[in-house]
Amino acid sequence: MRATLYGWHLSYxxxxxxxxxxYKQIPFDHQxxxxxxxxxxxxxxxxxxxxxxLVTAEGEWLQDSSHIIDRLEEAFPAxxxxxxxxxxxxxxxxxxxxxxxxxxxxxxxxxxxxxxxYALFEREAGASLLPKSPAFLQRLAAAKVAKGLRSYLPAVGxxxxxxxxxxAWTVDMLDLLERHFEQQQFLLGARPSLGDFxxxxxMYGHLGRxxxxxxxxxxxxxxxxxxxxxxxxxxxxxxVGHDGDQLAPTLLPILRKICSEFLPLVEGINQQVRALLxxxxxxxxxxxxxxxxxxxxxxGVFRRAALPYTLWMVQRALDxxxxxxxxxxxxxxxxxxxVGGLSWLTLELPRLQRRGLRVFFE
Length: 362
Ligand SMILES: N[C@@H](CCC(=O)N[C@@H](CS)C(=O)NCC(=O)O)C(=O)O
Hints:
Layout: E1 3-6, H1 12-24, E2 28-31, H2 35-46, E3 53-55, E4 61-63, H3 65-75, H4 86-102, H5 104-112, H6 118-129, H7 135-150, H8 153-156, H9 163-183, H10 194-207, H11 211-218, H12 222-232, H13 252-276, E5 292-297, E6 300-305, H14 308-322, H15 326-338, E7 352-355, E8 358-361
Parallel strand pairs: 1-2
Antiparallel strand pairs: 1-3, 3-4, 5-6, 7-8
Helix pairs in contact: 1-10, 4-10, 4-14, 5-10, 6-7, 9-12, 10-12, 13-14
Bound molecules: glutathione.
């Protein structure tokens, strides 16, 4: 039996897993998940109405792109996506968390604020949900899902008063990425790492495919376009490891921004989650979102709801630091000090476990 990936090209986290499976050359069938599978089979097995889900060749249902990748890295060690040297290893996890979590407002804003994107969503979501139904039912089904997704916009920070700030941030960051991909094939060097798969979530299904951002944001940046295309249609690279701990100078301004923007967001979420800790029973899932966190963005202040799940993603990076040798930890600290990121290592996150889209205290 081959693995089956349930998800849509439109979906952020499906894009991440799709690109990963292709790069790893893992045999799989891709099924654009339909309503019955989404609302019944997936819901029953994972407790969530969510994509992507991967059913392994052994028939196990895996949910959460990071969990899927962790499991597949064990089963398919060729072309590892987790570097073995300390700085790159930590950065691969950190970039994954940043790609998965930080970029969500950009992906949602560029899709839902520009009406011209809706035709593609309506067509693909409708045909996937109800493949054999008349077009008007497909349109209704797509509209229902669209309504659910739009209802998340304010929580993730897509609020009209923040559009200008978000647009300006996006242009600056895409310019930094363009400069980087002009110099290097992938974020950490000549082969993709977990970090590239995190970032491609936003870039594949949303910015690279929705007509407005594909034309206005990605089109004018040919090196970014080429990276998205490389991620989506990977060349077969020789099965050797990553390039050691060297990093391209063009990655450094990106890392500095991650430390000056994403780290404060994580600290803000952690503050709220820690405040719950004394009275919250272990094993009981936390609310999916808490109150707003404010972070400085460019010349302004950006507000978005705290998602406790984000801490689980960062915990992955900190776990990789914890098990390093003292010498490796020292090398990582030395590097992080140069990009303003030492505080990543002193974050005191409560120990979290994941259930579906939520987390709980151990
Ligand atoms: N952290 C999960 C997130 C999965 C996720 O949020 N998927 C979106 C589609 S891209 C979804 O199904 N969302 C439904 C919801 O949030 O209720 C992962 O990495 O797989």
